[in-house]
Amino acid sequence: MATAISGYSAADLTTSSAARTVALNARAANEGQFGDVALGRDSTIIKPVSLPTTALPNRKAIRYTVLDGDTLDGIARTFGLTLREVLWSNPGLRLPLKQGETLALPPVPGVVVVVKRNDSAASLANAFGVDPTTILGFNSVRGPVLTPGMVLVIPLDPETSPNLPTGAPADPLHPGQLVCPIQGAKIIQKFGPTNFSLEPAYAGYLHFHSGVDLLADYGTPILAAAGGRVTAAGYADYFGLRVEVTDSYGLVEIYAHMEDTAVNVGDEVQQGQRVGSVGSTGLSVGSHLHFQLQVGGVPADPLPLVGCA
Question: Is residue 227 within 8 Å of 164, Cβ to Cβ?
């Protein structure tokens, strides 16, 4: 015999139970899995959360304190960077390094910049040849407005050179490398201590060659090894007639003993652009180009040069 419960007949209970079963089945169907999308209550779409399998790179600039015996080359190798990226992130750096000073280093290939007044995501993007969203996204910056003093990391493709202020790529031939100022020229004297009495004393050596010499005839065109701004042009001591280019990374290239110059101070030059002609001015014996690289105000070996014999 069916039992009545508080005003409900057995038929009512049976109908209610059936209705509840239908409702539960419908709810289960609505919360079902369809491919990679789940449906929650009220048919709300629940997107799957993708969990990274490897740790994301640290996106903050690295602050490295120089230790006794550190060198720029050694620091660059330790952090998987190039020498130019270290210099690029520390404008005005002078050598030798001093114990205790702090260097800014990018956690990925690229550059660390401190935002200046009037800088914007668009202007920085133009300077470094990237998309503004790359700068904003990598640094988790909301909106295009940047605050002076902000420290940003700008990740860069090693195969892409930075831009000149004109917007043209600085190093269209070989980004991140120095090209031979005279393609195919023979190197007749390398960087370092020498027995050649015409070379001045340097770094404790009686005679020291502060660059490399490239053999070439009078009037041979000299091409910019890297793109940048002309920061000096004219006669200077034993260099004779020379041109100095501070490239987009902050390295300084000096072209000496020239017969004539093709650029003026303040000009922006691209890698491969003519800066002058070979001569034998200053302290020179015969026509050749003395090419010198300065890093942090100190002469450094410019080799290898792409395209020299």
Answer: yes
Nearest to 181 by CA among 84, 247, 232: 247
Tell me which DSSP letter residue 183 carries: T
Q: What is the pLDDT of residue 39?
A: 46
| Amino acid identity, position 50 | S
Centre a 10 Å sphere on the Cβ of residue 117 and count the other Cβ atoms it contains. Answer: 8
Beta bridge partners of 213: 189, 290
In Å, what is the CA distance from 106 to each residue of 74, 76, 89, 148, 271? 15, 10, 8, 19, 25
Helix (H) or strand (E) holding 103: strand 102-105
The neighbour count for residue 52, using CB atoms within 10 Å, is 6
**pLDDT for residue 72:** 92
Q: 174 by DSSP, 3-state: which?
A: coil
Q: Which of 144, 93, 135, 133 is nearest to 111 (CA)?
A: 135
CA 300 to chain centre: 20
Which are the contacts of 308, defined by CB distance < 8 A and separation ≥ 6? 180, 182, 183, 184, 185, 186, 187, 214
Q: Name the amino acid, one letter, at 299.
A: P
What is the pTM for the complete model shown?
0.76
Alpha carbon of residue 90 to chain centroid: 12
Domains of the chain (ranges plus CATH)? 62-155 (3.10.350.10), 186-300 (2.70.70.10)
Using CA atoms, how far apart are residues 187 and 131, in angstroms rounded to an integer?
Answer: 40
Torsion of CA 158, 120, 61, 110, to 10 degrees: 0
Average pLDDT, the chain: 84
φ and ψ at 244, to 5 degrees? -120, 125
